[in-house]
């Protein structure tokens, strides 16, 4: 096998091990790239599923067979009491059979949820060679460590030409900690970014409108760059920290400038609160989309939608506060207040949705496995 990243195929029984397979996918996709990992073959109507599975398995170097406690005994609802594996057209059986027939495909049983390797007599004749394969156990209690062993084994087979493994993706049980960290990092970054933006625009001595554009571009650009650097360091993923910072600065600056342009020149002042809502939602879209782009696997659309909704709700809250205390909107603290509140809301909402998707990763729709 060459030193290039190995192509992996994850075979699993959806009704039993979908959650474990999703976590495993996130880990190996982060290390080897989503393009090198297959999970769920999407079958359009009229497609020969045997040919499609044969081609997909043939394109990979390694088949990871995720085995739960009932992997060999799950029964079809209308199969007359037979185990799924006894059916010749069972997807999981076809995937494993195809891989076992190929000398160039390595088959690794992956035991989850306390499963044991099935005995040869529990398997169809065509699958009995699987019982002789050395398995690796992924325990829920030591998931990171066990997945690290598996990734190291795949690395050893691929060769030593690649750089050291990237940090493993965040485990979902640590989601609350991630949200708290994100809120604190965002609030601190907002404070520093605001002070820098004010100092720069004061030093440039710009007119009011250009100063507003520059200030908001700097404000959101610096804030987004800091959040992007934190997220890349915290959860890992593809790409460098410098690349994440550059992407964050670009997305934040674009969002801040768009915010100012919409507020100053596009929306009529008579639009009132609507003008604020539209401008801030634009920022929420870009900042949330940035977090989605840095996630593994990328979830740009989900991040952007969560960010836009959070920005709208945060702006609605600010509009209410300012309606109760009109003097607050005239103070210099207004910019820092809305940037901090909205940035924290956008980051928290986007991360919460991304964590939820990671915990409930829904495979591509296909017939029951």
UniProtKB/TrEMBL annotation:
Gene3D superfamilies per the UniProt record, alphabetical: Toll/interleukin-1 receptor homology (TIR) domain
Coiled coil: none
Keywords: Membrane, Receptor, Transmembrane, Transmembrane helix
Cited SUPFAM superfamilies: Toll/Interleukin receptor TIR domain
TM regions (residue ranges): 176-197, 217-233, 245-266, 278-295, 302-324, 336-359
TIR domain mapped to chain residues: 9-143
Protein name: Toll/interleukin-1 receptor domain-containing protein
UniProt source species: Conexibacter stalactiti
